[in-house]
Amino acid sequence: MTGDLLLRSVRVAGPGRELLPTGEPIDILIRGGAIADIAPAGNLRVAVESLDGEGAWVIPGLWDHHVHTVQWALDAQRIALGAANGAGEAARMVADAAPLADGRIVGSGFRDGLWRDRPSRAALDAVTGERPAYLISADVHGVWLNTAALRREGFDGVDDDGILREDDAFEISRRLNAADDATADAAVRAAATRAAARGVTGIVDFDMAWNAQAWQRRAAAGFDAHRVEFAFYREGLERAIGEGLRTGEVLEGTGGLVRVGPLKLITDGSLGTRTAACSHSYAHDPDNFGVLTISPDEVRELLMRATASGIEVAVHAIGDRAVASALDAFTYTQARGTLEHAQLVRHADLARFARLGVAASVQPTHAVDDRDLADELWREQQAIGYPMATLAAAGIPLRFGSDAPVAPLDPWMTIAAAVHRTGDEREPWQPQERVGIDTALRSSSRHGEATVELGAVADLALCGADPRTADRQTLSTMPVLATILGGRITHRA
Length: 493
Prior knowledge:
- The structure is a single chain.
- This protein is of the alpha/beta class.
- Helix content is 30%, strand content 24%.
- It is built from 17 helices and 22 strands.
- It has helices spanning 69-74, 87-95, 121-128, 147-153, 167-177, 181-196, 212-220, 237-242, 296-308, 320-333, 350-356, 364-369, 371-377, 389-393, 411-420, 437-443, 472-476; strands at residues 5-12, 26-31, 34-40, 50-60, 62-67, 79-80, 105-110, 133-137, 142-145, 163-165, 200-205, 227-233, 258-266, 313-317, 337-341, 344-345, 359-362, 384-385, 398-400, 460-463, 480-485, 488-492.
- The strands form four sheets. Strands 5-11-12-13-14-15-17-19 form an eight-stranded parallel beta sheet. A seven-stranded mixed beta sheet has the order 3-2-1-4-20-21-22, with no helix packed on it.
- The mean pLDDT is 96.
C-alpha cells in the first residue's frame, strides 16, 4: 500500500509550510510511504518515479471525517430531490421515475422544513400508485413513503403524512442500503475514485451496517483508493469488544488501509426533521423541543463500556440540550473521541468542551445549506448556531466532514464553506464564525493533525491554485492535479 516517489518543484500551502524558510519550490522524496527528504527544487536526484509539480501547491491529503459510505455511493442511483420547493413538486419528480431492479422508487435529498404544502401519503400515492416509493430527507432523519412502501416495510399504521422519523427512518435506510455485495462494492469503488479526484486520502465511515467484513472484502478485491476508519453503532458494541477491536488498530486483512474507528451514538435528531434536542422550542411549534433519542444514563453507560475496552466514541449531538448531555457523559466517563455536528452550543459549555479534549467533528457545508432553515426554525434559540470560529478560539480541535450524502463529499466545498460562510452570492451567514484558510486546511487533514514534514505519512494532494489566496469560487472548485496515498498516485489530472 506504499511506494517511492519524487515530487518535484512544489510549494507547500498547508500545514508544514511554517517549517520552511521560504515559499520557493521544493522537492519531496517519498520512500516506503513516508516523506524521507525535503530540499530546494532540483537538489534531489534519485532513481525513483517522479512527478513534476511545476510549481503547484501541495497540502496534506484531505479527509472527510463523516461519511455514510454505502448510502453515499448508492445515492448516485437515486432521484435527486434537493431542488423541490414543496411536497407536490417532490411527488411530481418521482411520478414517472423508473424503479430500481427490485421494483422500488427511491429519491433522496428533499428539505421540507420551509415547505408550505406538507408531505402526505395520499399525495405520493396519487402519482406512484402501487409502486413502492421511498423519499429520503436530506438529513436522513426522515423518510416519506407511500402506502405501498409502508405496507411492504410493515409500517402501515403510521400517520397520514407517511413520514417515518429517527430510528424508524434509519431502519428504512438500512434496508434500502442493503444491496448485494457486488452492487455495493462497485458503487463504493466508483465513489472512491471520484473522491480521490478531489484530493481525498481518507474517510471515517459511519455506515449503519457492521462493516468490518465489507472492508476486508473490498481490500482483498484490490480497493486502494483511500484510507478508512470504520465506525459501528451500539448494536455492534458487544461484537466489537468480543472480537477484540480497538480504535486505531489496523483491521486484519486490509494491508494497513483500514483501521478500527469509534462507537457511534445518535443522541438526538436533526434541524431539518425538527427533532434536534434544544433548550427552546421550534418556531411555530411551541411544544416541540426536539428529542433525546438515547437517555443520558444510557449514553453514560455506553461511554463507560466503550472506554473500558479501548474504544473511542463519536456522539451525534446537534441541539444544545444534546450537546450538553453528551459533554456530561464525556465528563463523567473521561471517554475520548468526537462530538459530531455540534450545530447549537451553549456559551457556558465551551470551556468544558475544550478541557475535555473532545474534538468537534463539524460539517461547514451544513451551515450554508441550513442558513434559511436555522434563521426560521431556531430564531428563539439563545445558543451559538453552527459554531466554528468560536470552537477553534476556545481551543476545541476541529475535524471537517460532509456527512455525505447529506452534503456532497467534496472537501473543497467544505473548506470554501468554512472560510467564506456562504455557498452563493449572498453575504456570509454569521460571518463571525468564519475560519481562516490555514485552520480549514488543517481541519480537513487526518484528525486535524497531518502535516508536510520529514517522517510524515506521504498522503498528499497537489493543487492547481494556491488555496491561501484563492477566492470562494476557485476554492470550492479547486483543480486537483494529483492525489498521493503513501507515495502511490491515486489520481492524476
